[in-house]
Amino acid sequence: MSSIDFQTTRRLPLSPMRAIGTGLITLVAALSLLGPLIVPGDPLAQSLIKALAGPETGAPLGYDHLGRSVFHRLADALRLSPVIALAAVATAGAAGLILGTLSAAKGGWIDRIFVMLADALLALPGLLLVLIVLAMVPGTALGFWAGLSLVLWVEFFRLTRAATRETLASPAVQASRLLGFGPVYLFRIHIWPEIAPMMLTAAAFGTATAIMAIAALGFVHVGMRAPTPELGLMMVELLPYWREAPVALLSPVVVTFALLLGLTLLAGSRET
Amino acid sequence: MSLLKAEDITVRDGATTLLSPVSLHLDPGEPLVILGETGSGKSLLAQALMGMLPEGLEAKGRVAIGDRVLNAGTPDRFRGLWGCEIGVLPQEPWLSLDPLMRAETQIAEAHRLVRGLSPRVARARAASDLSELGLAEAGSRFPHQLSGGMAQRVAIAAARAGGARIVIADEPTKGLDAARRDEVADLLLSEMGQAGGLLIITHDLSLARRIGGRLIVLRAGEVVESGTTRDIFAAPGQAYTRELFAADPESWSPRPSAAHPGPAVVSAEDLALVRGQRTLFQGVSLEIAAGQVFGVTGPSGCGKSSLGDAILGLIPPAHGRIRRQGGAHPFAFQKLYQDPVAAFPRKRRIGEALADVATMAGCAAREVDVLMEGLGLDPKLLRRRPGAVSGGELQRLSLLRVLLRKPAFIFADEPTSRLDPITQASVIRLVTGAADTDGIAVMIVSHDQALIRNTADSVLSLSEPGNEDNALRHRRRASSLT
Q1: Rounded distance, CA A216 to CA A212, Å?
Q2: pLDDT tens digits, residue range B54-101?
Q3: Model pTM greater than 0.80?
Q4: Rounded to whole angstroms, how far apart are CA atoms B209 and B233?
């Protein structure tokens, strides 16, 4: 074995796919956060005279069927579902990480119980589970957060458990244990560096799944309630007017597409 | 007339020369051995001779095979010769056989596709090949049902089925124990016969000696020495060759035993280990004293590594008792791994990993530097990650790591089986040095009997499991009894 001097001390350059993904997400984030600052307006203010009117200075994307500015509704919607999605992914990631590590480290009946629970949840369609939780939890946003967390943690749990089991069985961990290192060191030095990249990928995918779920339920009128601006709800509200106001209908579609594509590219372009 | 004649073969990777001009010839009935350490360019030479260099490497020189003269720079022309003129015996043949094909079918396939025989004739030839090799009844078995030696013979039969007169064997004895190694050497020699050509690439000195013929010693892409194997072994002309031969465990001088072995650090009584349904061994008793080197040897799969793990408390014994010296701190029992790369945290710099251990063990950071110097290690290594350090250096760093813990007992599990002879000798010297100077009880496990014989104060030989008469020879060297 000859020694190799150059090693992965420097960071790998951003792959083109990842750069595109990051760019798309930045664009969407800029639209939702900076847009209303540049063009002030109210997402809920109605003006029936302007219903389905085209773009103008106060409403760069025109008006919907109730004369509300599509631009401002969109900016508002883009702060709603991504925030719920990120919160759900954070909760699910933390739960999956803790339970997965525990499961792999303890084994035995603890492992069996968690695996059984995860398998049982996997057997239920995700959207159905979210709907059930929505019906039980007061407050739509809270319900979405709880339901989506419940659906998403399984993925994180399974990834963590599999990778941790493998790492814990390695000679490196055995050596560290013999040397007297405790579980915190093992997790920080051996386990976390192995699962961190996987967790980030899963988080990006999970966020995309959650945003899509919120939009899908909105689209079939069982998610967010009107007049809250929400991506799926906006699409279905504007669908009957596609001939009169194509820009108004297309803008939530395009933005949702860009956001999901960005997240998927960010997650899926890892070479390893 | 030579079967194969190569003139001025060079291999370059862009501007770097990996192999300086080498000329050689291969005569019928006289094997040629190319001997060198890892990285000496011996495999590149063989690949250049076959036109099989990896992408990006460029060869130059003339290769004459039979009556054909080829340019090593145009590897495409060699393709037609594969199988018919040159057969290649790959490393670790059990991995190169098709796991889904029966032994006889694999050989028949070569007869049919390379030599162009009809399926029926090919099948008959394959059957007769197998019976010649003493494998008549193994034709219908799958590779996983063959033992390592049988798989090797099947691979040889398949390599020669195309009618190749020249066989090139790259490390044919990798991972084999001494008895199997000699078996393979004899088999290759008998297969070569009077008219065939045999080119062997190896770092194994015993294999080279057994094969005989002519020898080329390579180092860092340059020929150090060439001549008949017998002459070179009798009187090596170059300093490097002498060093290489001296590093062979066979020629080590036995380590002088500790005059007064200390109190027993660990002892085991009537130990038995079971893995799955299989009893690995039973009735093993041993005692390892401070400052003593205890060797364990035996064929692969005999449970010698498991014995060490059981002593460390990593696996529970099925029967028997293990006693550790009272008074030793709980982390005084340490292990050196066969693959040191896998024994370090993959993504942490070595210096950081060692500093963690130093902090943990409560010793001064300076101690790392002192040990680094004592083990002949370059401080630059501390900034690298495990994957970027050579095996020999990393094994020394592993030793450093366990020494930081002030161990009473070190279990070295095949610590040098992946290292070159010269590196192996230095690592073993350092490990046994730890026993001599620090009074650490050391247990070395190796499949290399010569290595164990010349380093250990007492030796435990385990035999193949499943052997009803699991004869354990627990031998103590006379010197340690006085």
Answers
A1: 6
A2: 877 888 888 888 788 888 888 888 888 888 888 888 777 777 888 898
A3: no
A4: 8
Residues in A 122-141 with any Cβ partner in B closer than 8 A: none
**Which neighbouring-strand residues pair with B70?**
B63
Say yes or no for a CB contact (<8 Å) between B357 and A179.
Answer: yes
Q: How far B297 CA lies from chain A's nearest CA (Å)?
A: 21
Chain A residues near residue B330 by CB distance under 8 angstroms: 180
**Residue A255, phi then psi, degrees to nearest 5:** -65, -40
Q: Helix, strand or coil for residue A61?
A: coil
Going by C-beta distance under 8 Å and a sequence separation of 6 or more, which residues neighbour residue B74? B51
How near does any CA of chain A get to the CA of B396, in Å? 14
The Cα B1–Cα B5 span in angstroms is: 10
Q: Spell out a b/e string for B60-74, using b for 16 or more CB atoms within 10 Å of the CB, else e.
A: ebebbbeeeebebee
Q: Which strands sit side by side in the sheet containing B409-413, from one edge to the other? A: B333-336, B409-413, B441-445, B293-297, B458-461, B473-476
* Cis bond upstream, residue B340 (ω within 30): no
Q: How many contacts (CB atoms, under 8 Å) link A and B?
A: 77
CATH 1.10.1740.10 fits A14-39+64-268, yes or no: no
Q: How far is CA B59 from CA A26, B6, B50, B55, B361, in A?
A: 50, 12, 11, 11, 53
Token reading at A232 = 């799926």
Strand residues in B78-135 grouped as ranges (E) = 86-89
ipTM of the complex: 0.76
3-class DSSP state of B218: strand
Report residue B389: phi and psi, to 5°.
Answer: -120, 145
The full length of chain B comes to 482
* pLDDT tens digits along A43-100: 888 888 888 888 888 888 889 888 899 999 999 999 999 999 999 999 999 999 999 9
- CB contact under 8 Å between B402 and A179, yes or no, is yes
- Rg (C-alpha) for chain A, rounded Å, is 23
The domain locations on chain A are 14-39+64-268
The encoded tokens of residue B134 equal 């003493």
Query: Chain B within 8 Å of A175 (Cβ-Cβ)?
Result: yes
Q: What angle do CA B314, A164, A10 make, to 5 degrees?
A: 115
Helix axes B366-374, B350-361, angle to 10 degrees: 120
Residue reference for tokens 């000496």: B40
Between B231 and B463, the higher pLDDT residue? B231
Whether the pLDDT of residue B219 is over 70: the answer is yes
Tell me if B206 sits within 8 A of B181, measured CB to CB. yes
Are B97 and B154 within 8 A, CB to CB? yes
Residue type, B341: V
pLDDT digits (tens, 9 = 90+) for A107-139: 899 999 999 999 999 998 988 999 999 989 877
State the Cα–Cα distance between residues B22 and B221, nearest whole angstrom.
9
A243-257 burial, b if ≥16 CB within 10 A, otherwise e? eebeebbbbbeebbe
What's the maximum distance between 2 C-alpha atoms anywhere in chain A? 78
CB spacing of B343 vs A175 below 8 angstroms: yes
Q: Which residues contact B386 (CB under 8 A, 6 or more apart)?
A: B340, B341, B344, B345, B346, B350, B394
Q: B314 touching A, CB under 8 A? A: yes
Whole-number pLDDT of residue A97: 96
- Return residues 176-215 of A near B (CB < 8 Å): 176, 178-181, 185, 189-190, 193-194
